[in-house]
Specification:
141 residues; mainly alpha; 75% helix; 5 helices
Length: 141
């Protein structure tokens, strides 16, 4: 029984020392919940409970977890920039397509206008060639 108590005391002291060292090495602005001196007191006066509280509530987040929690500026996010470039290219293609469609409609309108303007002139010319006004037909040249 005494051996178990001594072993538990050694584990408790080792855990307390490890936790104090980790608390001392962490940046003050990254420590959560309490200031660093308060964490030293909690860890020292409540060795097992203080260590457990430090690991759950006070320990700075790992680089991966803190990166996930902190928001990035849009210009730092490569996925956002890639998506923005795709969106920009799509907008440019749509604008070019719209411009080409308008140009095509304009050309078709001009062509139909030219054809409608040429058609009456041809009909009048054809009509004059076919009759000379006396009711007699003249040959087409």
């Amino acid at each position: 029984m005494v051996r178990i108590i001594i072993f538990a005391a050694l584990i408790s002291v080792a855990l307390m020392i490890y936790t104090l060292i980790e608390c001392a090495r962490s940046e003050a602005h990254q420590v959560r919940s309490l200031p660093k001196p308060a964490w030293f007191a909690v860890i020292f006066f409540l060795p097992l409970i203080g260590a457990a509280l430090w690991f759950t509530l006070g320990r700075p987040l790992s680089a991966e977890a803190s990166a996930a929690q902190t928001s990035k500026a849009p210009d730092d996010d490569e996925d956002f920039l890639r998506q923005l470039e795709v969106w920009r290219r799509q907008q440019q293609r749509d604008a070019e397509l719209t411009k080409r469609e308008e140009e095509l409609k304009r050309r078709e309108a001009e062509k139909s206008k030219d054809q409608s303007a040429d058609k009456p002139a041809k009909e009048n010319k054809d009509h004059k060639n076919k009759s000379d006004g006396n009711g007699t037909a003249t040959p087409d040249s």
